Amino acid sequence: MEEKTVKKGRLFVVSAPSGTGKTTLCRLLMDEFKTLSYSVSLTTRKPREGEVHGKDYHFVSVPEFERMIEAGELVEWANVHGNYYGTSLTFIRESLDRGRDILLDIDVQGAASIRAAYPEAVTIFIMPPSMEALRDRLEKRGTDSPEVIETRLGNAIREMEQKGLFTHVVVNDRLETARDRLFEIIR
Fold this sequence. Notes:
Strand order of the largest sheet: 2-7-1-8-9
Radius of gyration: 17 Å
CATH topology: Rossmann fold
CATH architecture: 3-Layer(aba) Sandwich
Helix content: 40-55%
Number of strands: 9
Number of domains: 1
Strand content: 15-25%
Order of helices and strands: EHEEEHEEHEHEHHEH
Low-confidence stretches: none
Structural class: alpha/beta
CATH superfamily: P-loop containing nucleotide triphosphate hydrolases
Mean pLDDT: 92
CATH class: Alpha Beta
C-alpha cells in the first residue's frame, strides 16, 4: 500500500498598527478562503464588547500566560500596551503538518518571531493611508482614551518603520482595494 504524503500548509502573517483595519481585512479573508485556518491568539487583556472567547481571542489570566511562556508552548508572544498576546506553537505545528494553511493576525513583534521560526511564511503589512486617517479611525472606534490613542499612534510610527521586513505591504485606503490585493496574495 502506498502512503499518501500530505503537502505542508502555508503560513500567512498579517500585521499592522492598531486601527488600520487589519481585523476587518482578516475576517474578509476567512470568509473568502474557507480552507484557511485562523489562528486565534491568546491574550491577557479583558474582552471588548461582543468579543467571544475562543473565536476572537483565547482570554487567559496573566499567571496562565506566564506558565505557557515558561513551558515553551508559544511560538511567539509579546507584551503590547500592557497586555500579553501570543500564538500557540502546538496549533501552528499540527495545522501545518496536516496541510492546513493558517492565517495569523498578529503585531509586528510577533511577526518577527514567526519569521525567525518559519522563514517561508508569507508576511503582509497593512499600512494606513496617513497618520491623520489612522488617528481618525482610532478616535471613531471609541474604545480607547486620548492617552491610549497617543500611545497607539507613537507605536504605529515605530511599527511602520519595519514594513520593509514584510513580504508584501498593502495600504488600506479603500477597504475593497485592500481586500482585493490581499486576495491576490493568498491566491
